[in-house]
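Re: Re: ligand-bound prediction request (bumping)

Still looking for help on this. To restate: I need the protein modeled with N-carbamoyl-L-aspartate bound, output as structure tokens. Inputs repeated here so nobody has to scroll up.
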Amino acid sequence: MRMTEYTWDAYAALPLDTKVELLAQRDGTPFHTLFAQQFNRGILDELGTLATEIRTIAKSRAGMQFLQSLLGHKRAMLYFSQPSSRTFLSFLSACQILGLGTGELRDASTSSEYKGESREDSVRTFSSYFDMIIMRTPEKGLAEHMAWVLSNSERPIPIINAGSGQDQHPTQALLDIYTLQRSFERRGGLRDRTVVFVGDLARGRTVRSLSALLLNYPNIEQVFVAPAPLQIGRDVLDALDAGGVRYRLGDDLASALPNADAVYMTRIQDEWDKEQGESAKIDTSRFHIGVEEMKLLPPDAVLMHPLPRRAEISVEVDHDPRAMYWRQMRNGMWIRAALIATTFGFGRRIHEYYRENL
Ligand code: NCD
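Reply:
Sorry for the wait, this slipped through. Here it is.
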């Protein structure tokens, strides 16, 4: 069956595995990118290779001209109804690298939604002008619903989920995996490692998506270090149990650091507080990395953060060669360019250009 053969309610009730199957195109690549679980090892390797080729090609003027000629006939709509600077600019830059024209809507008060237009109608309006929608929303499942709406319209264009509620951030997970792969590529690759997640694991979507992608790599232990009220969700642990993955939960960062290969810090997501000051009541002071904590981290480990950061990593740490977060952010632009190129079926052209010219 295809996605369009289900009513929305029937589709929404399907298990994630079935949705993932329905979303795959014939060659396995996603049309709509909604969940991290859509990416298997083959696609992850392909996107990583493509991202590295794109960043190499883009170094020369001739290479950049080639890349910009690829999707000059396409336009993407950036629909960001939730605050963003990094992800927005990274997608915008990725579009520019590939020559896509872009439009943006970031403030619902300047759109017709303010006049009472439904989001379904807004999205169908975008699809009249654009060839792709890149969407960030505070609502879990909205990008998915819009993908279903578009697939059932006369102009089914792809949607990329650029962050949905507390649930999913698949392209952040792609850039995190790409960063991990690059960090370990000369040291045996991304396998037999311990990844330590720290901070607000209950409400942060980046950890949820990255935890799912790590299931594609052999023997990766996942350690979740958080204050008890902000510990990782049961559904994430169920997926690890189903995948036979080792994991540990705790609240003592100092004891987790000496065994870590990668530490993934996150900020407290207090915008999700149900009552005012809820997060402020939780003692988060121990979930912090400064110069002293870095002494506990092995010399070849990496320190990551999806950003924006608050106090959880001291700025003094930025100069440490293990601090990977700025490079991680830049990796996002390249892997998003790779994803957009792949979605439009231009991966092979890029591989050919790379083989012939570099
Ligand atoms: C993250 C997000 O939006 O979930 N930011 C990002 O996209 N890099 C993390 C966060 O907001 O804490």
